[in-house]
Description:
By secondary structure, the protein is an alpha+beta fold. Helices cover 20% and strands 37% of the residues.
Amino acid sequence: xxxxxxxxxxxxxxxxxxxxxxxxxxxxxxxxxxxxxxxxxxxxxxxxxxxxxxxxxxxxxxxxxxxxxxxxxxxxxxxxxxxxxxxxxxxxxxxxxxxxxxxxxxxxxxxx
Length: 112
């Protein structure tokens, strides 16, 4: 099993969620986050004063999938989240040793 974490632009969340649902991925965790990478923030004007916004709003999507679904899930996220502009985000894939559904006691892939 693998955990896929995707940092994406907030307005792309509905498209990504729908695309993942279409390939059979129903469970996910979404968190509102702030950060920056190469984008390095931007400047804005507020009441005539210019200031730098270092941390940009993003959404972190977390999904745990079976090994056989990893590449399809990654490709789906990329297709749905890509705008072609700087700041589209990143995807991180890590190994998951064990998953347990608390309610039923199901373990690993049965618990996903």
